[in-house]
Amino acid sequence: MRYFKLVVQYDGTDYAGYQIQPDVLTVQGELEAALGRVLGERSRTQAAGRTDGGVHARGQVVRVEAERPIPVEGLVRALNDTLPVAICVATGDEVAGSFHPRYDAIRKAYTYRILSRYERSPFLERYAWHIESPLDLDAMQGACRHLTGRHDFSAFAAAGSNKTDKVRCLERLECRREGEFIEIEAQGDGFLYMMVRNLVGTLVEVGQGRMAPGVPADVLASRDRSKAGPTAPPQGLFLMRVDY
Asked: What per-residue confidence (pLDDT) applies to 160?
């Protein structure tokens, strides 16, 4: 048996998330179907994370098991010739069988994009949350400073999350303007279900003046999801990188 580490990129718009689910289109389903056609065998895969429907990835990491003796360069090339246009393999490496893309990860980085202007765009809104009203970037950045560090992020986890340990280290949370976009970068040792989108929704409440910049600190301390902002829509979120 041989093992490969693939860095996979995808436009998640038309997929019900990364993980295989019955009767819906998923990134994992498309990837494993392509692997079956390329390798002539059923190949098991494991991923660094399960992105939700509509969420994109520039650096999803997937481990592939294969019995066929194929060079990694040939595997990458053949997959890219077979996969749908919304999915591609950026790089590939052969790894030890002990490698696990989720449990061996030490850090993940996400970027959330907001199209911050009055006019909407059919060419941009698949990849950004369109907000017409101006956002106070300084206030949002001020709120970020209250949220970084090691904390219990229960207030920013999806309601009904089955994770009992909700302590995570948010190493970096920053807002910046890039032309007509506001980009929010989140980097940490791990993220709870919907955590990044809930953080973004809360920062937007601050940017719109509905929440003072210091309030997210109180929300964090409360561990109460109902006190945080709404969940940001999925299309602005990108899994950028997984570090090992």
From this structure: 64
**SS3 (DSSP) at 90:** strand
The beta-carbon contacts of 26-34 under 8 Å, at least 24 apart in sequence, are: 27/51, 27/57, 27/60, 27/87, 30/83, 30/84, 30/87, 31/62, 31/79, 31/83, 31/87, 34/79, 34/82, 34/83
**Is residue 47 predicted with pLDDT exceeding 80?**
yes
Cα 120 from chain centroid? 24
Residues 107-161 have pLDDT tens digits of 999 999 999 999 999 999 999 999 999 999 999 999 999 999 999 999 999 976 6
187-197 pLDDT, tens per residue? 999 999 999 99
For range 95-112, the mean pLDDT: 97
Whose structure tokens read 């009904």?
160
CB 79 within 8 A of CB 89: yes
138 an active-site residue?
no
- What length is written for the chain? 244
Nearest residue to 101 via CA among 59, 67, 73:
59
Q: Which of 14, 52, 152, 224 is catalytic?
A: 52
Contact 21, 30 (CB under 8 A): no
Residue 52 has a pLDDT of: 95
pLDDT at 43: 87
d(CA 182, CA 111): 10
Tokens representing 198?
């809930």
Please state the φ and ψ torsions of residue 240, each to the nearest 5 degrees: -90, -40
pTM, 2 dp: 0.95
Domains for the chain: give ranges and CATH numbers. 2-95 (3.30.70.580), 107-243 (3.30.70.660)
